[in-house]
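Build the 3D complex.
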Amino acid sequence: MVNTKYEGFETPGVTVDLVLFTVNESRLKVMLVKRVEEPFRSDWSLPGGFIELGESLDAAAQRVLVEKVGVSDVYMEQLYTFGKPKRDPRSRVITVAYIALIPWQSLPQPASEKIIDLTWSPVDHLPKLAFDHKEIVNYAVKRLRAKVSYSNIVYGLMPKQFRLSELQSMYECIIDDKLDKRNFRKRMLATGLLKETGKKDTAGAHRPAMLYQFKSKEIVFL
Amino acid sequence: MVNTKYEGFETPGVTVDLVLFTVNESRLKVMLVKRVEEPFRSDWSLPGGFIELGESLDAAAQRVLVEKVGVSDVYMEQLYTFGKPKRDPRSRVITVAYIALIPWQSLPQPASEKIIDLTWSPVDHLPKLAFDHKEIVNYAVKRLRAKVSYSNIVYGLMPKQFRLSELQSMYECIIDDKLDKRNFRKRMLATGLLKETGKKDTAGAHRPAMLYQFKSKEIVFL
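Done.
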């Protein structure tokens, strides 16, 4: 396996890798697939693949999402490009990593059986990962935690309608910390990003509570 | 010119491009070089180049900085990877863009004569640029403006020692807006990132004022 030349320059392989997050059982989790080929055969890894020459980077990430997860309409953004010379032992491959967010409820159910050898790992208990994928996941977690505090990116993980207490739980799972209920409600309502649905959630053992939804899917920086 | 194959996948060319910012004459400016080859011969463009197979992306960006600007010790971070299929009319080339910051005083002087066909363009009056470089510059300006408000990244543009009024001017040039003097001083000193040098600036026509410096070059998120 040898890298090829382009105008005298050897060109690297270029892949995209997805860090697909969800929250389930009150934990922030990332999707991993078991590798079936060398190198790192049988190790867990991020879903990814080589880009095709006619498709943009975003389109390649979208294709991987559809092929490997079976969904398409999720929040996705480019994270960072990883390109250490030896990250792939075969030859030079650089990877453009993407973050994607999906509510657990939107995953094809049962989510863990959609693809054989797929798992959702809590981000703070990752198994051994192939290539530099642990570094990529850790970088993605850092970005997600920073970004929830200054944007409405969290909508990508929420069901369409929710109680404020559910939104608070989501934040707490992502940042792995507790928030003050009164401050949280006050701050969230002050952003102007939420609207009341007019409906109340009467299911379950808890008291009925107003259901909210995001006014827009557009990402806003607070 | 044809893209070559890697394990059955045609591989794109991979370049790095630098968005090198400075502030001079109270304006945020970006360094541009005139292209001497097709495509876009004689158009302005960002300094950049193909990555070499043995070097990391960061190392490639650093090499371009040294070769094209003649400096090395500046703040630099990866910005975003641009990869639309037709961005280079010759064949598929994706580019990993970097932001770099340099104080005007640190440029080899006279800065505009370091390399023939080099210019520093105000970011709000860009000439026609080659490839998708205008899109890249605009994205970089957006990132820089957002980031100065929640980090100490501005140190990359400041001389070693400065008056608080000079720091305020720098912020105003970057965000292209005026700031309240009292609030600015209060907020900056409250961050704990600055220290007094113990020296006063007595040069020029203005009143002597305390000179400050950043305690650390480490990037801190406020």
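The helical segments of chain A are 57-69, 133-150, 164-175, 181-190.
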